[in-house]
Amino acid sequence: MIVCPNCNHQNPDGANQCEACYTPLPATASCPNCGAAVQADATFCGQCGFNLHPSSSTHEAETAVAGASTIPPTVVSPAVPNLVSPDPLIEPEPSVTMAVASPNLEKSSANSAVTAAPAPIEVPVAQPGAQVSAQSSPPAAMPVGGAARTQLQQQAARLVHIQSNTAVELPANLSVIHIGKPNDLVPPDVDVSGFPNSEVVSRTHADIRVEGDAYYIEDVGSSNGTYINNTPLSKGNRHRLRPGDRISLGKGDMVSFLFQLS
């Protein structure tokens, strides 16, 4: 059965307009998980909560990770310093002793002494890697000045009451914002009891969920329903809010707000 959002008359499945008030009825489809009737543009099933539009981003991320893992790592070989070849050894020339003939035995014995050869000159051999250049020290790191810093700008969301043109700022530190009237079970973050015709709004009427930079509204079981741009929002479904969306709490469009971002 399809319930008319205007007069709550129960119409048979497949009907396009209400038999009682001739209001166009929302299109419905069957949930692939439990078979319950849901609106054609619904994101979640109102009976079992099944996601009617699954995203394929998880599969694409797994494919990208699998493709990246097949790339072999690049091995960088350390630089080998150039070795300085040692200087060749210089062998001293052998000394030649000349014999001096003398008729005197004493002089001949004195001159017969062999002149000592000079000691060989030691040439230092350069060891590989022993020479260290005085200017081989690494240059000092240059300070990074004026590094660009990215500052995230947080957007502010508000609800503007159409009947009184009153703006209600949504709390920026909450991920779930409760809309309703004072009660002991779920105190509202946005209290609408001070607006005219607030008797059509339930104490726990709707929630606005914040996920990153996106805002979603869902009905939490109100008595008179929640309408987005004059279209009823079924319990269990949620709608992503865009600037300019009209949110009506209860029937008759008597307590309505415009969603705005700044």
List keywords for this structure.
2 helices, 262 residues, Tumour Suppressor Smad4, mainly beta, five-stranded mixed beta sheet
Note the topology.
Elements lengths: L1 E2 L6 E2 L16 E3 L6 E3 L17 H13 L35 H7 L45 E5 L4 E4 L6 E5 L9 E2 L12 E8 L2 E6 L6 E3 L2 E3 L4 E3 L5 E4 L6 E6 L1
Parallel strand pairs: 7-8
Antiparallel strand pairs: 1-2, 3-4, 5-6, 5-15, 7-9, 9-10, 10-13, 11-12, 11-14, 14-15
Structural account:
This protein has 262 residues and is mainly beta. Helix content is 8%, strand content 23%. The protein has a 6-stranded antiparallel β-sheet with strand order 6-5-15-14-11-12, with no helix packed on it. A hairpin with a 6-residue loop joins strand 3 and strand 4.
Shape: elongated
Low-confidence segments, given as residue ranges, are 99-103, 105-114, 129-134, 143-152
Strand content: 15-25%
Might you state the CATH topology name of the domain at 155-262? Answer: Tumour Suppressor Smad4
